[in-house]
Amino acid sequence: MILEMKVPSPGESITELEIASWLVEDGDYVEKDQPIAEVDSDKATLELPAEESGIITLKAEEGDAVEVGAVVCLIDMDAAKPEGGSEAPAAAPAKEEAPTAPAVAEAPKSAEPATYATGTAAPAAQKILDEKGISNTSVSGSGKDGRITKEDALNATPAMGTSNGSRGSERKKMSMLRRKVAQRLVSVKNETAMLTTFNEVNMQPIFDLRNQYKEEFKAKHDVGLGFMSFFTLAVTRALELYPDVNSMIDGDFQIKNDFADISIAVSGPKGLMVPVIRNAENLSFRGVESEVKRLALRARDGQITVDEMTGGTFTITNGGVFGSMLSTPIINPPQSAILGMHNIVERPMAVNGQVVIQPIMYVALSYDHRIVDGRESVGFLVAIKEAIENPIELLMNNNPKKALEL
């Protein structure tokens, strides 16, 4: 019996997927639930498992865009599994190696005169020589009538005084996810009145808390006490104070949310992904850190789902992990604002009339000025600064051990 495997629907709004890569070859025997392909949607990369065991026949190429419900492969369920697993293909008969030509032209070793074909390169050989920046006249051809073969070009080295830098280029189709990200970024710039406001945060109080409690926190909860939990809780507090920042535009209407679903930007194998921490306003430090770890691992392993990356109301991105000092992050539509964290650098700072070296982070808030006014945007960022610089009072209710569940 032949089973037709069709493209499943990963979400209501997705009608088309792209075959990113086949994990098996045409004619392979596959086991039920074995991953056979990676498929890209405009939101995530997903694995496609075999629905039954049998011999597979591929019906789509890598890079093909296929509609949800289309047949991408056939599985012959009546085919017997090869004994001892899949057999390795028979070794191809060894080819005679072409004689290696001298790298630089030298006097002919035979008395045969040069012909019209001497120095003429085959198309593949010419491409290699062009990439290496080597002139045809610098290579002795070993082919018929002195023609330059592909092997001659591969073995050629540039003469003294010539460039040996690569001048090649590659044309590669962007993944569906990357194309969708590109479209969304351009639409944000064109369709929103995006502005960015900046501030600086003294991270010393957070450093002191982490130094005091991080070992005990990790031992009890099996997760690190990082900066993300402090900033996430500072954001949820600020969103309560300035609800316009937690809203979005829908046509002529403003939608305000009484919950905080915080999107966190993480780097995955297929590029930037933005999974969502649901109802972050109800989470503790342990809850935030556990959720950040879970989502980051799923993104890294390519297991993140579409549902886990949709529906956020506010985004936090941390360019500091890559060394960024300052940036203007782009809003994640249809949200109205995004917080950018950056690297922490020791800088001189005035404290009680004295110049003191402190760990400082610059923070940025990009916002849609159509719905968020300057007072709200500046006040929101100041509220985050206040919470980070006074976390015991504003984030821990003056009881760090209880807040950290120690």
* Helix vs. strand class: alpha+beta
Low-confidence stretches: 86-114
Shape: globular
In CATH, what is the homologous superfamily of the largest domain?
Chloramphenicol acetyltransferase-like domain
The third-level CATH topology of the largest domain is Chloramphenicol Acetyltransferase
Percent helix among the residues?
25-40%
Q: What is the name of the CATH class of the largest domain?
A: Alpha Beta
How many runs of DSSP E, i.e. beta strands? 19
Short description:
This protein has helices at 123-132, 150-155, 176-191, 204-221, 227-241, 285-300, 374-389, 391-394, 400-403, and strands at 2-6, 16-22, 29-30, 35-40, 45-49, 54-58, 65-67, 71-76, 194-202, 247-250, 253-256, 262-264, 266-268, 271-273, 276-277, 314-318, 337-341, 344-351, 354-368.
Structural summary, described in words:
- The chain has 406 residues and is of the alpha+beta class.
- It folds into three domains: 2-76, RNA polymerase II/Efflux pump adaptor protein, barrel-sandwich hybrid domain (OB fold (Dihydrolipoamide Acetyltransferase, E2P), Beta Barrel); 99-167, no CATH class; 193-403, Chloramphenicol acetyltransferase-like domain (Chloramphenicol Acetyltransferase, 2-Layer Sandwich), CATH 3.30.559.
- Helices cover 26% and strands 25% of the residues.
- It has helices at 123-132, 150-155, 176-191, 204-221, 227-241, 285-300, 374-389, 391-394, 400-403, and strands at 2-6, 16-22, 29-30, 35-40, 45-49, 54-58, 65-67, 71-76, 194-202, 247-250, 253-256, 262-264, 266-268, 271-273, 276-277, 314-318, 337-341, 344-351, 354-368.
- Strands 9, 12, 15, 16, 17, 18 and 19 form a seven-stranded mixed beta sheet that branches. The chain has a four-stranded antiparallel beta sheet with strand order 1-8-6-3, with no helix packed on it. It has a four-stranded antiparallel beta sheet with strand order 5-4-2-7, with no helix packed on it.
- Strand 10 (247-250) and strand 11 (253-256) form a beta hairpin.
- Helix 5 (227-241) packs across helix 6 (285-300) and helix 5 crosses helix 7 (374-389).
- The longest helix is centred in the middle third of the chain and has 18 residues, at 204-221.
